[in-house]
Amino acid sequence: MTSPDPATIEDFVRGTLGCQCPDDVFRSVAIDRLAPMAGRPPVLQLMIGARLLIHIVATPPDGLPTGWIEQLAANGRATRDRHGCNRFRLVIASPDAHALPGDIDGRFSRAVAGDDRAHLHLLAPGQLPAGLQVPSARACSSPLAADTVAK
Fold it and tell me: pLDDT at position 41, please?
């Protein structure tokens, strides 16, 4: 995986996701690919300045299994809290966000139970910067890879 440069990540986080993180947060960006496990799809994890956690996942090719969004929300919040981050953002990359179930926002909201430090973003894969593409569950057979980008 070729990692995007820090400026590209900052543009994505601020521009596409609308995050208002201070400049110093972007001095350290860790990018990890988390292999699928226990029904969870592969996750591209960005840890930005040890303050912002972003999980990027692709929609499963066979549709959303029961409890999928709830599991992703719970896992992301637990990881955020374990690492002492301020915010968690779950990004679901789908070629057709309009084809996702209409209640996905509501399911996420119920799963985070009013946690105003957790946010959901539905994006087309083309809205992700080069180097942040998430493999589908079928395509993920490579070992874990990690990369750190520093400003």
Answer: 84
- Sheet architecture: strand order including 87-93: 118-123, 87-93, 52-58, 43-48, 28-34, 146-150
User: Which of 1-5, 34-38, 82-86, 141-145 is least confident?
Assistant: 141-145
Do residues 31 and 45 touch, judged by C-beta distance below 8 A? yes
Q: How many CA atoms lie within 13 A of 35 on its CB side?
A: 6
Q: Range of 52's domain?
A: 6-150
Q: Residue 29 carries which side chain, given as an amino acid letter?
A: V
Q: What is the CATH number of the domain that holds 134?
A: 3.40.50
Burial 6-27 (b: 16+ CB within 10 A, else e): beebbebbeeebebebeeebbe
Q: Is residue 133 part of a domain?
A: yes
Residue 82 included in any domain = yes
Domain count, the chain: 1
Output the six-digit token pair for 113: 């139970």
Query: Is 1 inside a domain boundary?
Result: no
The rounded distance, in Å, linking the Cα atoms of 85 and 104 is 24
Asked whether residue 132 is assigned to any structural domain, the reply reads yes
